[in-house]
# Entry
Amino acid sequence: MKLIHVFVPGKPVPQGSVSVYGGRVVSVKPELRKWRDSIRAALLAKHPGEPMDGPLAVSLVFQMPKPQRPRWSLPAVKPDADKLIRAALDSMSTTKTQRGVITDDARIVSITATKTYHGAPGVMVTITEAGESQ
# Structure
């Protein structure tokens, strides 16, 4: 079973919707591009071979910066988990211009994601081949 397991340090950045500035459509802000590039580089360092193809399972643990006085013991605040997931998944896939560790994010059949205040800010990414069920 193939496995990629890596921690990417840094403040997790969500991937939001496109924005329009002065009639120009801007879809990726600089901090998001840097975050996605960091994830891509860390994954490629662990998996330099051909992109993984076939059913895959992905686990993401987003370690969020803890505020001085958090309202709750878990980060039930922005950024939204789904937008954090979207940024991470987009950094994994091969595109027309960039190599990734998976051929297409359509290959992902299982995703688990957690936001926590535990540990240094960043994301723990685990990608495995998904088991075939009969």
User: Anything to note?
Assistant: Strands lie at 3-9, 19-21, 24-26, 56-63, 108-116, 122-129. The mean pLDDT is 90. Residues 14 and 78 are 9 Å apart (CA to CA).
